[in-house]
Amino acid sequence: MTTPRWTNTSDRYVTPGHGDAWANEAAARGRVGTQQLLAVETVRPDRHIRVALDLGDNDQVVVRRRLILEDGRPVERADSYYPAQLAAGTPLAESGKIRGGAIAVLAKLGHTPAASTDHITADKPTEADYELLQVDRQEPILVLYRLSRDANGTPVEYMITRAVARLSAGYTYQTQASV
What we know:
Chorismate lyase; 6 helices; 6-stranded antiparallel sheet; 40% strand; Bact_HTH_transcr_reg; globular; two-stranded antiparallel ribbon; alpha+beta
C-alpha cells in the first residue's frame, strides 16, 4: 500500500546566505520572481500567532506584509511575524527591502533559524485574496504556516502565506510506501 504525500523543502527560505530565495526559485524555472512590500507594522497579534510565537497576551509582533509576484503576476501574499522584543529597532521593523533578507537579520541577532515546521492547508479566498491575488470566488488557495525556531528552540518567525493553488510551484505529489 502507498501513502500519497506532498513534498517540498523550505531550507532555502530559512537559511542565511541564499540571497533572494524566491527570485532564485523563479529564475530556475525561467521566470522572474519579485516581491512588493505592502506594509511593516507593529501590532498586537491574534491568539493563533501569539501561541505560535510563544508570546503573552500583551506582547506585540512586527509583521512584514508582502505580495509575491512571478513575471509581474501576483501568486501569493506572505505575512511574516517576528516577536517585537526581537525585531524592534532592527531592519525587520523598518519599511523597505532588507539587504540580505530577513533571515540574515535574524542571523546577525544570533537567532538563525535552526528548525522550521511547515503546515499546509487549503482555503477559500478571502476579500484580501480577491483584491491582491486577483482570483475568483471558487479558486482554491494554499495556506502555508511556517514556524521557525533558533538553535535554543525559541520561535523567531511565524509566516502565513496564501498562494493561488494553480500557480504554486515547488510542490511535488508523490506516493511513498506506508510503514
